[in-house]
Amino acid sequence: MTSVRTREPEARALGAAQLWIGTSWKMNKGLAESRRYARELADYVSANAIPGVQPFIIPSFTALAATRDELGDDSPVLLGVQNAHWEDHGAWTGEVSVAQAKDAGAQLVEIGHSERREHFGETLETTRLKVAAALAHGLVPLLCIGESAETKRAGDSSRFILEQAAGALDGLTDEQLRRVLIAYEPIWAIGEHGRPATVEELRKPFADLGREYGGSTLGLLYGGSVNTDNAEELLGIDHVTGLFIGRAAWQLPGYVRILELAAAHPKASA
Ligand code: PGA
User: Fold this and answer.
1) Tens-digit pLDDT string for the chain (270 aa)
2) How far apart are CA 115 and CA 99, in angstroms?
């Protein structure tokens, strides 16, 4: 059993990496598979340099502690959870708090993924409470924002995602904002029913996000059908400083390939 004491993000030089490359496993993988992935990833990062790249993985809650143990103390790979409650403890049956997630090894909290907004009633207000709770516990909030196909068709994408971001980040000090990651994940580009976004489609949303949050946050990530074929060009978009990956990184070789592409990208050494 390894200690979690050294795995707190504030104890490490967060922000030193230029590119954030991470994956959420969503509701996939049992203990054995999670352990194997984490162990093999730990072997990979101890044998291979990925300069300028900050890797992170987000397993299910059930596999969090096991994954932490396989990564080991002082791993360069950050560990996250896919959701967390803003209260530290209490009568919230079925929920897991930021404090509990931190206790089990989490350093990062994914907040406001479109699947949670659509199926589990996540709102501007709950995303705001969760961002604040993550920051209060020294964890990195990874705020996901993204518009539907209808909103995009109506030409309203930028207004919509800027409102989602502003709602969740309302009231933060400049210092707190610098500890926040934002992932732009258009709903129409996510998952097996999504269609990959073109670089051209992403330029304007990232220009708008970059103007608002580019220099003031920890990073601006893109997510939605990222894969080994498009990762490089997506990283080339102005203001994109990372990728948040689902399916293409659920098997380790896919994730490792994207880590390598990121490490070789000019932005990793910028
Ligand atoms: P995908 O998922 O890469 O499988 O499209 C992305 C996400 O939901 O974050």
Assistant:
1) 333 344 555 444 555 668 999 999 999 999 999 999 999 999 999 999 999 999 999 999 999 999 999 999 999 999 999 999 999 999 999 999 999 999 999 999 999 999 999 999 999 999 999 999 999 999 999 999 999 999 999 999 999 999 999 999 999 999 999 999 999 999 999 999 999 999 999 999 999 999 999 999 999 999 999 999 999 999 999 999 999 999 999 999 999 999 999 999 999 998
2) 23
Alpha carbon distance 118, 146 (integer Å): 12
Give the residues surrounding ligand 1 with Cβ less than 6 Å away.
24, 185, 190-191, 194, 223-226, 244-248
Measured CA to CA, the distance from residue 30 to residue 5 in angstroms comes to 25
Residue among 20, 23, 245, 255 whose CB has most ligand 1 atoms within 8 A, to mutate: 245
CA of 195 to the centre of ligand 1 (A): 11
**DSSP 3-state assignment of 1?**
coil
Indicate the helix (H) or strand (E) that contains 200.
helix 199-213
Return the best residue to mutate from 225, 255, 258 for the ligand 1 pocket (most ligand atoms within 8 A of CB). 225
